[in-house]
Structure formats: structure tokens, C-alpha cells
Amino acid sequence: MNPLHQRFTRGLMTALSVLMLAACATSYPPKLLVDKAAQAVRANEPSFEVAHSSAPVVLIGDNQENFNVGLPHIVINTGVDLFAAVTVRPPQQPLFGRQTLAYAIQETGVEPILHLGDIIDHSCETELEGIFELFNDAQRTGKPWAAIMGNHDGLFNGVLNQPSIQHITTFSSYGWRVRCRKLNLPTIQADAAKHIANDKLFIRDISDLCLEAVNFLAHPRFGLPGQPRRDKQLDVLKDKTCTSVLSTKLDAPLNSSAEAHEHPKIADFASSNVSKDQIIERYLAQLKQGSTFMDKTGINPFNDGRESFLLEATRPESFVQRVEGVVLNREPNCNRGSCPQFTRSYFIQSILLPQQTGTKKFRLLLLDTTHTGQEFDRIDATVWRSSPGDIGFVGGNQADQYAAEIERHKDSILIIGGHHPWGVLDKNSKERVAQAICRIKNPLIYLSAHTHNGFWAEHTIRCGSDSKRKLLELNISSLADWPIAFKRLSFEVNADASFIRVKAPNLPAAAKTLTSNESAGGSDDLLAAWQANVCTAVTEDIRKENRAALDMLQASDARSILFGTFFYQWRVSGSKRIQLYRSSLDVHSSSLRILSASYRDPIFAQEFSDISVGFMPAKCAEKLNASDALRCHSEHLKEAGRSGDVKRIVAEYDMATVVLEDFRRKLRAKESVGQLSKHSRNLMACLHVEAAHQDAVLAPAERNPVNNCQFIEQVLTSNVSGLGDELNNLCQNKRGELR
């Protein structure tokens, strides 16, 4: 790109970003105003005698476990980050973010855990596999858990399904697959250079048709003889180009007569993205492992028709009491309109909260707000903003089942919940849900996530032509972006259930003692609380390096890739390919520097002493310790990124990917057998939390302002009102960002 062209591109992108930021900017309330309004609400709070109360549960959301060592993708780079601030997070989040979730799970006693969705980020199998292990460890120690679906749980990047557009675009199902591709690492360090040179690390430059045929034939059900469409996929393998490329990649012959599912290396080649139907099935399998359920319908995976299911707990004290829904499966090669039905899968849940006092049971009835029958792709997500990244959907059949569940438990205290905030549910969904929840006798409370910020809000819903009711919403912040927090949630109710006190203190707890006129601290207090809990062993030297790594990424500039997105064909090639890899190389360079900082901690360095420095450039592998070697590799990538040689840039990206994936797998291995020390877990959680805070501070204030209303710890609501007008006006979240 010539200098004039580059200046025009940057100017255009900057102007567009300013316009978009101005369009969504909201002035979040100063803490002083929030404190005064909260104080006024408390002063007018009616007194009541608590007759029934629930024991606390841990409420979390949006940790978005991120697999960032797949092939670069056009929708996940530092240029797109100008428009959606969560596109490229601080590298500490994909490196260490799961340790923040681990802290929330492990350091809260035996209180049950409820996750309000977005457990994973790009919907890669590699993201999902580690999260369930954390929850299963909690289950084994007597801490039950439940989760609902978020828009990132089963959709690519949270906004794209597998579209019906032309398969040649970079936004096709192929793009999702290669982003989530499991890495075929070299078995020994000595083979690394040859392995990468022969392009064995990733699978590149294979046509969609060829890749889809392999995925279909490798499937344990579809690939067997007698399955429909099998012969058609075998015909694809007769193409010499497809067979030749596959044989080269697999280091073994593959021809049209081979049984792909029996091939020794085909597992490395099969699709590693997970769609919504697959996540639901795996979640139900997880529930069955930890509790006793009566499966009243059973799931027949991969059935072409609609599959209803119903699980009911056989123990009256079980946390998860009932799970009901529908799974609509997809085929593994479901591009060009043959697979969007999996987004129509959904499930609702009935959760029994532990009782503290009284006899009235407390139940959470949880919706699936990602239940969309629409077929959507990049235009819907980026232009019309009509994908679940922006809008929540609840289908009619789900709403009918939800109404029946409400009727079944009409004598309990019923709390509702879903991933999306009430304000971003589409009009029809709101009407369906309102019609169902108007049956609830107690004041209406709605729990949500998705915003990554947190707030309280009060809504008015219609219950018939001339009847209205108030609905109080508690929206929680995330474990991915600042303000990183989770909540300890409980309820207190009077005898006739006309008043409910919602108690939701942020965790970790604020470091200072609150006065009667204050809400629960603020952003600085939250940071201090995290530091007091997980940062006690982190030295200033490590902190300095951690900050420097983020500063280095902030200076990254890959905006010209956006120019190619808008004005050229969608396939990434030539100069756009270089810029896309440069963007990812910047992230890798920052990640290596963060690891270098971590290795300055002697306990961490000892625990991960087997880091494969042999995968690094020779001049770096010769360093005396892992910290110096990783810092050297980071600098080497920065130098390589300035090159105009696309082959070198791609090769350097692959080399760094080997190192980062090697660390990720060793970390997972220690987690899976309980050998990760609390010291190292806290170190990684600290670096993630402090980086998220730094990222929020460095970003323009209008991109990610902290809503001070989230720090209000308790609110009283009745069948008439809850927040009060002043506090409601301050706390309503009117932002509409991709999350």
C-alpha cells in the first residue's frame, strides 16, 4: 500500500470509528450521584419482617474463554477492535483468563454456581474442554453448578452462524473451522523447523468442498457406510487436487476408497468448532455426571428432525431440578444454507436455590435468549445488527414451555433470568416472555449478563390490555473485561411475598468499610479487592513487564485490513494477508512478553520449567533462562512483523504459535490433575485483572465506561416499584455494543 493510500485508509477508519463511538457513547453516572440516589431509595424503603430467605449462590458471566492460536481471521484483528472494543482483548485474557474464573469457582466455599452465559468466545472445542473441567472439579467438592447459553456459546465470535452465503468467502464455515483448528504440533523439538516449513502446523489452502468432505466422512455417524450423502462426499475425494493436498498434510496416502473415520491422523483434520446443538448436548452430559436425573425423553444426536428432551432430578434437594428443550442438529458440512437450524435449539432450566429460612422455595427459571430461527451472517451482524450479538431472541415454543414451568411452580418465589438484558430482547420476544411471567405472583426480578459492565434497571411490562407491572433487572459484569467481578446473590421475602430484597454484593469484596451513605465502593475499590486477594506475591518488576506488553499491543495498527474488507473481495490475499498476519503477530509478541514476565516469578518458573525453548529461534533458545528466551522471541517477532515477506511473517507466526500452544497444553495438563499451585493461579489471575483494568483506562472513556450502578449491593422491590425513578434513570444501560 502506497503512503497516500495508507494515509487515506487510516483517516477513513479513524473517522468511521469516531462516528460509531459517538453514536453509542453514553454518559455513565458519577459515583456521587449514584450514592445519593441509592441513599434516597434506602430512606424510603418500607420495613418488613423477613419470613423466607435463600442461601447465597455465586453468580458469574461472560468469562469468554478464548483460543487465540488458531489461524488469523479477518473479523478478529486490531483493526476491527476499533469498532468493537472486545474483538482483541489484552493477551492476558486468552493466556490467563481461565484462572480468574478458577478463582471465582474455588474461593467461594461450597456455594452453588450459576453462569449466565458466554462461557467460551469463538465457539472452539479447545475453549470448551477446559471450562467443563473447572466446573466438574467444583462439583466433586460439593459445589453444584448450572449454566445458560450466551451468544458466544455456539456461534462464531458471538455474532456469526454458518451462513448460506458463497462458500468462497472468508466468513464461511471454513473460516470458523480454521480459526478453531486444533494444532498439529511437532512431536519433538528437533522436528519443529521442518514441521513448520512443510506447513504441518495448520491446514491451509484447502478448498471448502474438500475440507467439508473430510469432516463429513470423519464423523463417527455420518462417515459410516449407508449414511445419506456419503457417496457424494466420497466423490469429492476423487478430485486429484483434494486427494493430493490431503495426503501431503496427513503424511500418508488418502484416497476415495479409504474410510476417513479410521484414518490414524484424521482427528487432527476434523472440524474443531462447536455449534449450539453440540454445546447443549455436552452440557446435558455434564449434568448427568454430577447428579441423578431421570431422562424422560432422551436425546438422539444427529437426528434430522426436531428432538425434544426433558431431564428431571430425582433428588428433591438438587440444584438443577429440570431441563427441557429442543436440539436441532447440523451436519458437519453444513455450508450454503443446509445448517442454520442449529440456532433454533434451546433449553430452559428450573434451578432450586438453597433455603436459609422459611418454607417458600426459591426457584430460578432460566431462559435461552439466543433462541433464534433467523439465518444470519456477516451483513446481519455488522450492518443490520440483527444477530444474537446485539439482540436477544426467545421463540414461541420456548415461551410456551416457560409459561408451563411457571404454572408448575406458582406457589414458589420465582426469579427469571437470561443472558441478554431485557432492553435488547426483540419486540416479539419481550411480548412472549411478558405474557408468561405475568403469571408470577411475587415481584418480578430478572437476572442478565452480556454487557460486561453491570447495572440495575427497572422496566414496565404489559400484562394484558390495561394492566402493567414493574420488572427489576440485575445485570452483572464479566470475568473477561473490566470491571471484572462476580456476585454473591441471595433473596429475602416477607410472608405474602409482596416484597423482595435482592442482595448482590460484588466479589471479591471491596477492601474498605462502607458508610451508610455509600454504594459498594467503585472501580478503584474493586481493583484493590482483587489485588488484595490474588496479587500479594506479584512484584513491581513483573507488573512493569505486564503493562509494557499491553502498551506494545496498543501501538499495533492493522486498520488497513478493514479497507480491504470494505472495498475488495472478501478473500484475504496479498497485502491484506500480510496485514492480517501482522496483526496476529503483534498479539503473539505481546503474549510471549507476558509469559516472560511470569517466568520472573521463581515458583511459576519452577512449575513450568519444561517450556519448550527449543521451539524458539536459535538465538533465543540459547538464553540462560526461560524469561530471557521468551523476551528475546517477543523482540524477534516485532522485527519480523516489519518485514514485507509474507512467507517469513507466516512462518514466524507459526513458530510463536508452537511456543504458546505448548504452554497452553502444559497448563491444561496441570489443571486436569490438580497440580497447578494456588500461587501460580493467583499470579495469572492478577496479571489478567490488572491488564483488563489498564486496557479500560487506556481506551477512550466512551468505549468502556464503568457503570457505577453495578456497585449497589441490594435493592428492595415490590409488585409496584423497585429502584425509584431517580436511580432507575441513572442506572439504565442504553448502550448497544457487540459483546
Provide the descriptors you would attach to this structure in a database record.
739 residues, disordered N terminus, globular, nine-stranded mixed β-sheet, alpha+beta, Purple Acid Phosphatase, chain A, domain 2, 3 domains
What does this 3D model show about the protein?
By secondary structure, this protein is α+β, with helices and mostly antiparallel strands. It has 3 domains: 3-11 and 535-698, no CATH class; 29-81 and 99-161 and 273-529 and 714-731, Metallo-dependent phosphatases (Purple Acid Phosphatase, chain A, domain 2, 4-Layer Sandwich), CATH 3.60.21; 173-268, no CATH class. The chain is built from 23 helices and 18 strands. Strands 1, 2, 3, 4, 9, 15, 16, 17 and 18 form a 9-stranded mixed beta sheet that branches. Strands 5-6-7-8-10-11-12-14-13 form a 9-stranded mixed beta sheet, sandwiched between helices. Strand 11, helix 13 (427-437) and strand 12 form a beta-alpha-beta unit. Mean pLDDT is 82; it is low at 1-27, 164-171 and 566-570.
Counting structural domains, the number is 3
Q: Structural class of the helix and strand makeup?
A: alpha+beta
**What is the helical fraction, as a range of percent?**
40-55%
Taking all residues together, what is the mean pLDDT? 82
Tally of individual helices: 23
Q: Please identify which CATH superfamily of the largest domain we are dealing with.
A: Metallo-dependent phosphatases
- What is the 3D shape? globular
Q: Uncertain segments of ≥5 residues (pLDDT<50)?
A: 1-27, 164-171, 566-570
Report strand %.
5-15%
Q: Count the strands?
A: 18
The biggest sheet amounts to: 9 strands, mixed
Round the Cα radius of gyration to an integer and report it.
26 Å
Q: Which fold name fills CATH's third level, the topology of the largest domain?
A: Purple Acid Phosphatase, chain A, domain 2
CATH C-level class of the largest domain is Alpha Beta
* N→C terminal distance: 32 Å
Assign the CATH architecture of the largest domain: 4-Layer Sandwich
